[in-house]
Amino acid sequence: MGLLKFLKEKFTKKKENTSEVTEEVIEEEKVEERYQAGLDKSRNGFTERLKKLAIRTKKIDTSYFDELERILIEADVGVDLSLELVKETYDESKERGLDNPEEINDLLVDKMFIGYANEGGSFQTELKRAQEGPTIIFICGVNGSGKTTTVAKLAKKYKDRGDKVLLVAADTFRAGAIEQLEFWANKVGVDIISKANSDPSSLCYDAIKKAQNENYDIVFIDTAGRLQNKVSLMDELRKIVRVIQKLLPSAPQESLLVLDANTGQNGIDQAKIFKEAVNLSGIIITKMDGTSKGGIILAIRKELNLPVRYIGLGEKMEDLEEFDLEKYLYALLVDSKEE
Amino acid sequence: MAFEALSDRLGRLFKKIRGQATLTERNMDDMFQEVRKALLEADVNYEVVSQFIAEVKEEAIGEKVLDKVSPGDMVVKIVHDKMEDLLGSGDNDICFRMDGKPTVIMMVGLQGTGKTTSAAKLAQLFEKKNHKKVLLGALDVYRPAAIEQLKNLGLKCEPQVETFISDNKDVPSIASSAYLKACEEKYDILILDTAGRLEIDERLMDELKAIQEVVSVDETLLTVDAMVGQNATNVALSFASQIKVTGLVMTKLDGDSRGGAALSIKRLTGLPIKYAGVGEKMNDLENFHPDRMADRILGMGDIVSLVEEMQEKIDEKQAEKTSRRMMNGQFDLTDMLSIMKQMNKLGPLGKIMKMVPGAPNLNDEQVEQASYALKRTEVIINSMTRDERRKPEMIKSSRKIRIANGSGTTPKEVTKVIESYLTMSKQLKQMRSNPMMLRRMIRK
Predict the structure, then answer these.
(1) Are residues A292 and B234, on separate chains, in Cβ contact within 8 Å?
(2) What's domain A135-306's architecture?
(3) Does A164 touch chain B (CB under 8 A)?
(4) How many domains does chain B have?
(5) ipTM surpassing 0.90
(6) Do A180 and B1 touch (CB under 8 A)?
(7) Whole-angstrom Cα distance, residue A275 to residue A144?
(8) Fewest CB atoms within 10 A around its CB: which of A49, A223, B117, B241?
(9) SS3 annotation, B14-34
């Protein structure tokens, strides 16, 4: 069964089966709506283009597959992966004698995301927690990817779940970064530790001491943005992690790379080099509502086996969602208003 | 590295072609496949790549009849010229108003592309290079601490730049108050830093239109992140269709993305790229030179940019003397030391190496190592006598030992310094005889 059919059945069946309206159901629907709204542009840019291509195609020939390749490349999936996906689709459709463009499109979508799902690794969306003592979540990324805002959104999520949250303003370099995080800490109502012009490692050391002494449940470390080709800044990140591990050998429980959905092929480099430096456990993709692209997550998943853990679907505090592949795909591929 | 940089890849390709006697249909096809792939991996827009390849191919085939020039060089030249074409031509400095009123520049762009930082860096550039009095206007009332960020960056400028801040939350009226202040206090330039926004955000787009209505904005600059993917042209086209945009600022060009967006945006929107952000320091914003950028993308180095930057930051007399000596092939250890010292003032070595022809292949680790070696070299040269610096040939073993002792290094390291001096002066000679380089130097 094709992925699309599976998803449609799953999501419509679920609605039919749930007769009673509990809070959980309402919350679940809200999440689905946020996915729908946040992926509006992607749906138009990707799924609608596939559909239009299918409609205007009378006969399947190699130029059809060239067009598929173009759609993938223009979604930032990357040249190599695009070529590979299209070739697999071509071979299989030849083998099965498919001549209906819609079937071929479905096949392509299957290839794209079954690959993503089969890449292995856990599908847990919740952040990993420390067995005892504070959980340390390490947030890093290039300049302007949205780290500070993401930390604020994560803080709110975990505070709402009843955790005692500490934010660490480890971006001691950028003008206004500390004030920005302080603003959010106040707004969300969580504690923050900061020290202007200090060494981020020593600040993190203090933060972890504080978290241990005052029984914080979860600590989010907001590091300064850095381009991955700056060796000394990447060393600084390594040093922060080393310092953290002096106090808590199994920390950080998660190291997450914040990646702007507008990023092109440089995203692979970002993921690779940050992974080498701080052993990333996943990606947070931000600003997804602003772009029809974001195909880079497929390439990153394939090359580096890094899953997306959170997805930023809008500017509001609650618009950062745990990444749920099925919801993501359903919103990407199906316009719920039409169904 | 997941992908080779465009310059490395093309560099290798051209080497492959250079070795061949004739330009056949087949080896050209191979090459254009690779060029296409390289451009796509550099995030150049799909459509632009197709057009580019088609055009270059056509020109290359047309010129095949010439047999005096080596086919490889010919293709290099065609690709290079085409790239230059695509990037636009000529310098794109901002025209300042001559009527006594302040020139108003408005920064717009998506979140996180670097508007605030670029606004402050522009202020620094105009203060330092054009000797203008600049006022910054903080109009990003939405992002927490955006105003503090701008203000602090203004204070980091040399000389310090003042930021206009208002408690008012109505953005157009802050803009007009800032303009009023700029007029009354005789500022030459007002730079307005607006909030980051998605191009689909109607409310915020209307706000930009309203600013343009209440203040006569002379330049509206869209900041574009060099790392952006295929979305770049959509964003630029969309902004330009809704408000009047006069140019672009490419940011984060100090990253390792090749900035394919620069190529595509220029081609598809016609908007000139005016400035380039090349580092984290306040001085790290330069005029964008499309022709030089083409050189850089193709791995041909950017000596002109380097010379210009050096002149700005260092003792001009010394620089002139050194570069004249460099170009004449009279180049001794004192010159080498002076260049090194000047380089230290210029900031990270990596940035400079990218601009020096013949040295585009260093990776970042090597650059870091080189940075360390630079310091060692300095102590060694400082431990030489004046004569030794002028005529390094005279340094034989006993002198080496003396210099090593004096500088706390080893004779082996001293030998290395002398060797690298010899290589460098040899390279300079080669550089002078490189026709492509000479052509560029003469044209400037």
Answers:
(1) yes
(2) 3-Layer(aba) Sandwich (3.40)
(3) no
(4) 3
(5) no
(6) no
(7) 19
(8) B241
(9) HHHHHCCCCCCHHHHHHHHHH
